[in-house]
Amino acid sequence: MTTFPTPSQEKDVDASVRLPVMIFFGCAASWLALGTFLGALAAIKLVWPGFLDGFGFLTYGRIAPAAVNALVYGWASSAGLGIALWLLARLGRTPLRYAVLPVAAAICWNFGVFLGVCAILAGYSRGIFLLEFPGFISAILFGSYLFVAVWGIVLFRNRSPGPVFASSWYLLAALLWFPWMYFSANALLIWYPVSGSAQAPIAAWFAGGMMALWLTPIALASALYLIPQILGRRLVSYNLSVLGFWSFAIFAGWSGTALLIGGPVPAWMASAGIVASIFLCVPVLVTSINLLGTMSGSFGALQWSPSLRFTVTGAFAFLIAYVGGALLALPSASANFFFSDVFIGQGLLLLIGFVSMCFFGAIYYIVPRLLGRPWCCDGLIALHFWLFLIGGSLAWLCLIFGGLLQGYALNDPGVRFSSSVGYVAPFRLVTALSLIVLFVGSKCFSALLFLSIFRALEETKSPSQAVTV
Questions:
Q1: CATH numeric code, 7-454
Q2: Can you tell me the distance from the alpha carbon of 50 to that of 59, in angstroms, rounded to the nearest whole number?
Q3: Domain ranges across the chain
Q4: What is the DSSP string of 177-201?
Q5: pLDDT one-digit tens code per residue, 139-192
Q6: b/e code 177-199 from CB counts within 10 Å (16+ = b)
Q7: Per the confidence metrics, is the pTM higher than 0.90?
Q8: Sign of CA dihedral 286, 290, 291, 292
Q9: How far apart are alpha carbons 174 and 179 in whole angstroms?
Q10: CA 101 from chain center: how many Å?
């Protein structure tokens, strides 16, 4: 029989995880603002190469990877770890013990990311996508992560008697998958590099796994928890949850090798990635039916629940992104668009449209329960949502349509390379403006989060207020 936590249990759980989770969220918001700023700056330099050309650390080759790493490791990973800790504690109805260790791990993780981003801007990048940090910094991140992951697994192990929820499956899997991927990739590519012919498959596997096996499971866990919780109903089907999880676990890890199409690797590696990307549509469709089916007849709740608004938007982006990824994995599509902006647009949709929107929804739900007070300004929440929705959608559309035009031009022997760059220039200009909109939206989110924290600190002696979702 399903048991639900009492208000007293919820307060005890929230009090136990408050400090580490809020440190992760506060640092994540700061990294989001920095990452979107650097991303907008990189987009501007694609359109106007001479912009700030007098500063070596602001060249495109440095700020572009710095932006990606700030968003993946600083924003998304920090937010994801905070969400995972809170969800595992809440779902297991188990307070976090010895919170000082996760607090220290949160500080060390973000300090490591800071050193890594500074190293990239200083020109010490390793040149491998998502593994640009120097080796000693990767070791700091790995050690910091272990303290958080072990405490998350302990929370799951010590959970109160009762069913294991679908969200817990994804969280536990993500906590186990990430150290396996991160340690293996760093050991084989950074710390003790293998021969050159083996590096490309490992790099492709890791790049795909960072999204499919790390950030995506945490985003799905938050969506699978929030939508039923806010609406006060169950998921459409428990069996669909089981099918979605196990099929995702089987195929997601192989999808990254689809990037090897046409490369100097055995043909079976690329073929395995293509097949996995196509079959990945099964768990994506199943999970989307489960999430959006739960919303059936309740879409009006999007008007009063910002958490639901962000999460449902992320669910739609999840469906579009992974179905689009399956299409781009086809050899004909990859041959035409691999070196175009299409793949950049695909990455933007996954990171901003899906993962970030789901994480925003979770943070808007979690923070009032940790602080014991509602958000201080509903207007900023609405502004943040629309800025991210408009900016992210416009940037994605420009990258996709501009990339399609660019890809066909690159593969047309009658078109000069300089002409292909000219064709995509207007789309890149609009993309740069859209990323500036995203930066403004991230500043709204950061200001709202820190303002709410300061207000809560000022009201620590006042009676608790009702929270909103």
A1: 1.20.210.10
A2: 10
A3: 7-454
A4: HHHHHHHHHHIIIIIS---HHHHHH
A5: 999 999 999 998 889 888 888 887 788 899 999 999 999 999 999 999 999 999
A6: bbeebbbebbbbbbeeeeeeeee
A7: yes
A8: positive
A9: 9
A10: 24
